[in-house]
Amino acid sequence: MTTAPDRPLRLAIIGAGPAGVYTADLLTKAERDFEVSIDLFDRYPAPYGLIRYGVAPDHPRIKGIVKALHKVLDRGDIRFLGGVDFGTDLTLEDLRRHYDAIVFATGAVKDAALDIPGADLEGSFGGADFVSWYDGHPDVPREWPLTAREVAVIGNGNVALDVARMLSKQADDLLVTEIPENVYEGLKSSPVTDVHVFGRRGPAQVKFTPLELRELAHARDVDLKLYPEDFEFDEASEEAATTNNQIKTMVGTLTNWLVEDQDTGASRRLHLHFLQQPVEILPGEGENAGKVAGLRMERMELDGTGNVRGTGEYIDYPVQAVYRAIGYHGSPVSGLTYDERRGVIPNDAGRVLDEDGNPVPGLYASGWIKRGPVGLIGHTKGDALETIGCLLEDEPDLWTADVPDEQAVIDLLEERGIEYTQWEGWLKLDEHELSLGTEATGTGPVERERVKVVAREDMVRISRG
Ligand code: NAP
Asked: 105-120, pLDDT tens digit by residue?
């Protein structure tokens, strides 16, 4: 075993979402006999990745994770460098010169593709794109075309529920959250009356979680609608509903809603359909040519194992917008091999692999870009722990940076004219957003904790003072 040189190990982490912050935090706390110096990069001027740009604004409990991440970054032993796009502003070659090891925690932010005719029609939207819009992502347009009265949401995961909830909820009930002004205005103008959520399998095969499902019942002026013909349980469903508490709870909740048959005359309805698979998004005619005018679903039946097969029976729903919430997908990372099918960086327990399946020294992956977009935020910790374990094991061979000086990378960013932001900048932006919330509380009908700043140039200007 070689001894560590007389300097800290320089580590770059790409992505300041939960995966990146957990990785940095766990490494600083790990038992080791060398010092570390960590730079945590993000392409956005603000930290927190998926929490800031993926969690629905009316989920303050999850946003609370931000408090824990804030504590980590506020300690001062991890340097945050925002507004730096890996692959554009800094290349793999640059990082190799300045760091001994690099962890990629770039997540998965794109929509998985739904390969059916009509998926490209105007009015067919990716769920992840809509999430980015309502979370005030700097890189998506400020306007979202909310003109449909009847809307379909495809998928039975938590993102589908988020999307359906945000589409059906009364905009005024979201004012207490941190939604940006443009999002409130957009949702307020929406003429939507019916939101249909479609699962291709049965009520015992949903991917939601119980808390998120039950939340649907609390929306004001929204009636829940369920249909008896969608309630089918095969042997595998019965078994899941007796052996898995989560499934048991959700089947119970859904069955109660079915029996209760809500009809309060609310101005909006949220329909939950099961055992229906999308076959085609139907185009309109005449002035609606090229636009979504309907959704054709095939009725499915369970095959005994919890999977489904088609019945050959089709149902057309007259909807003017379709949201595809069938899962996220990763994006290639510049300079690394990429598994297009799974949307991940090929890796072995976090060690990045080359095209021949051999570990690339000094390169690691963590979070959704490592294992795919499944699991709750907390699960990312286990990932980070595994990746850090590999890094600690490889440590004796890692000391390879030619220019390990901490200032050198800052000089490089300055030289290239990159408007990077730092932790102090985030503290300024954070305070600014909170003060906008106080201001809006003074002039509006409800208490608002925060109003998000959306435009990248504004985020950078406020952060950089
Ligand atoms: P997900 O949980 O994987 O759900 C994807 C859904 O899309 C499944 O119901 C799946 O059905 C369906 N689907 C996939 N391909 C389809 C197709 N071709 N046609 C019709 N349906 C299709 O993905 P997600 O909702 O994007 O969530 C990703 C992760 O983030 C999950 O772990 C989720 O729990 C988490 N998350 C949590 C929260 C929260 O509030 N706690 C919020 C958002 C996301 P099958 O099951 O039949 O494949």
From this structure: 999 999 999 999 999 9
Q: Which two tokens stand for residue 236?
A: 């595998």
Ligand 1 within 6 A of 328 CB? yes
Element (H, E) at 297: strand 292-302
C-beta separation of 151 from 324 below 8 A: no
Tokens of 430: 């954070």
pTM above 0.85, yes or no: yes
Answer yes or no: is the C-beta of 135 below 6 A from any ligand 1 atom: no
**Alpha-carbon gap, residue 432 to 450, rounded angstroms:** 9
Residues of the chain with CATH 3.40.50.720: 9-109+330-418
Domain 9-109+330-418: CATH class, spelled out: alpha beta
**CA of residue 324 to ligand 1 center, whole Å:** 10
Residue 3's pLDDT is what?
60
- For the record, the structure tokens of 447 come out as 């208490």
Other CB atoms within 10 Å distance of the CB of residue 275: 24
Tokens 């570990």 found at: 359
Answer yes or no: is the C-beta of 209 below 6 A from any ligand 1 atom.
Answer: yes
* 312 neighbors 346 (Cβ within 8 angstroms): no
201 in contact with ligand 1, CB cutoff 6 A: yes
Query: Could you report how far apart the first and last alpha carbons of the chain are, in Å?
Result: 47
C-alpha R_g of the chain: 24
157 C-alpha to center of ligand 1: Å? 3
- Cα(155) to ligand 1 centroid in Å equals 6
pLDDT of 155 strictly over 90: yes
Question: From the CB of 214, is ligand 1 less than 6 Å away?
Answer: no
**Does the pLDDT at position 432 exceed 90?**
yes
Domain(s) labelled CATH 3.50.50.60 in the chain stretch across 110-328
Are the C-beta atoms of residues 288 and 305 closer than 8 Å to each other?
no
Name the residue with tokens 């435009």: 455
CATH code of the region 110-328:
3.50.50.60
Ligand 1 proximity of 155 Cβ (cutoff 6 Å): yes
